[in-house]
Amino acid sequence: MRAFLEMGPQGLASAQRALESGRHRVPRGMVRLLAPIGDPQKVICVGLNYRDHCLEQDLEVPTEPIIFSKFPSAIVGPFDDIVHPEESSEVDWEVELAAVIGRKGRRIEESSALDHVVGFTVANDVSARDWLTQRNGRQWLLGKTFDTFCPLGPALVTKEAVADVHNLSIRCSVNGQLMQDSSTHQLVFPLPKLIAWVSRFVTLVPGDILLTGTPPGVGVFRKPPVFLKRGDEVRCEIEELGAICNRVV
């Protein structure tokens, strides 16, 4: 997929022609969907990027984006299992809008930032809260990047197919119970600002994934806190992008 994205508009045009031909199709039931991007160079994440998520923690809204990362080895497909690690007793869910970079750039201007995005997908930024707040010097990396802690999918939806990426409903349910229900209009830093900010520090390349933050309703801030256990089913859904559903094992 990275090689395909590096082809730019030429690759997308070829894919469109293949789609319009009506050929090269197989029944959905005969395939297992993988993550739209399985081997990105970078998985870049943003913390505290929903106003309502800040409010549920009684935290001030950040004045600059809070950036961290996951390793690509955390990525799994839209219907693959989430493996509950033995090292954690506080595994949590976080539905997120993910943007996929389609064009290389460094020090990108906000005015042209979306030109560097090829499309969007749904992500679950699974998090081991005990490793975020109590272990590893309270650095976030290990608690965010256990294997299987980044389900993605069900597809890469091109930006042209999305009416307004900053006005999409975003939800997460656990075992059928709605836990998160918000809208991307609650983003503190919209995509152009995030892309411009991140590209001040690193070069963005085709296939890079940018997770844009989660809305309120995560397990750790419930009273009492609720965490995922083996056998739970987590469904993350974003309007116009589809849904992913992952079982905890």
CATH level-3 fold name: Fumarylacetoacetate hydrolase, domain 2
The biggest sheet, with number of strands, parallel, antiparallel or mixed sense and barrel status, is: 7 strands, mixed
The beta-strand count equals 13
Uncertain regions spanning at least 5 consecutive residues? none
In sequence order, what are the helices and strands, one letter per element?
HHEHEEEEEEHHEEEHEEE
CATH class: Alpha Beta
Strand order in space, largest sheet: 2-1-11-5-6-8-3
Class based on secondary structure composition and strand pairing:
alpha+beta
Ends apart, CA distance between termini: 28 Å
CATH superfamily grouping: Fumarylacetoacetase-like, C-terminal domain
Give the overall shape: globular
Radius of gyration: 18 Å
Mean pLDDT, all residues: 95
Q: Can you tell me the number of structural domains? A: 1
Q: Helical percent range?
A: 10-25%
Number of helices, where a helix is a run of at least 4 consecutive DSSP H or I residues:
6
